[in-house]
Amino acid sequence: MSKPSRPRSLKDTEARAILRSIRISPRKLNLVAESIRGKSAQIALAELAFSKVRIAGTVRKVLESAIANAENNHQLDVDRLVVAEAHVGKSFQLKRFHARGRGRSASVTKPFSHLTVIVREREDKKATKADAKNAA
To answer: Sign of torsion, CA 65 44 119 117?
Structure first.
């Protein structure tokens, strides 16, 4: 007796990868996620590989995981994948303190983030027009 399977929340031409509890603030992570949104998967991988931002390597691994999920689990064509969504969410915050002068203290928060990358297989517009001409 197991639970009934949940219907798939994504379309048939999409695949997803999620990384939770990344040690970076959502604001900084969103800058990197914003740079790959809407780009081809291969171009986004190249851009992340040469980025100087520290977290770019981690984002690259998540994108590679989404591409692998698309290829292995959903049989999508890797050459036609596009980064459809890359969104960032807040996670927990570690609360620490920092000793200051005269016996005082200051609070320090260390934020964590969640990253979700969704890749989608694009339809070739030229191919659909050619198919329509051949069918007529």
So the answer is: positive
